[in-house]
Amino acid sequence: MTVWAYVDTSKQVGDPDQLKLFADQDAADEWFRDNDPEGVAFEYPIIGGKEKIA
Predict the structure, then answer these.
(1) Is the dihedral of CA 23, 31, 8, 25 positive or negative?
(2) For residues 16 and 51, is the Cβ–Cβ distance under 8 A?
(3) In this structure, are residues 1 and 47 in contact, taking their beta carbons and an 8 Å threshold?
(4) Is the Cα torsion angle 8, 11, 13, 15 positive or negative in sign?
(5) 3-state DSSP call for residue 25?
(6) CA atoms within 13 A on the CB side of 28
(7) Residue 1 carries which DSSP code?
(8) pLDDT tier at 1, thresholds 50, 70, 90
């Protein structure tokens, strides 16, 4: 399982708007369209999570 992470480097560490986590690339893409069209998110594995069975 992975998460997509975005860091707004214009925000201070600890600011609630500094970090955004997305469940999948589609969710990230949708947020970027509305909020930061030039931003990017990076995919990271979730450590210790259980895989979701469809």
Answers:
(1) positive
(2) no
(3) no
(4) negative
(5) helix
(6) 19
(7) -
(8) confident
b (16+ CB within 10 A) / e for 8-45: eeeeeeeeeeeebebeeeeebeebbeeeeeeeebeeee
Residue with tokens 């969710």: 27
Q: Is the pLDDT score of 53 beyond 90?
A: no
What amino acid occupies position 54? A
> At a CB cut-off of 8 Å and minimum separation 6, what does 10 contact?
none
State pTM to two decimals: 0.76
The amino acid at residue 34 is: D
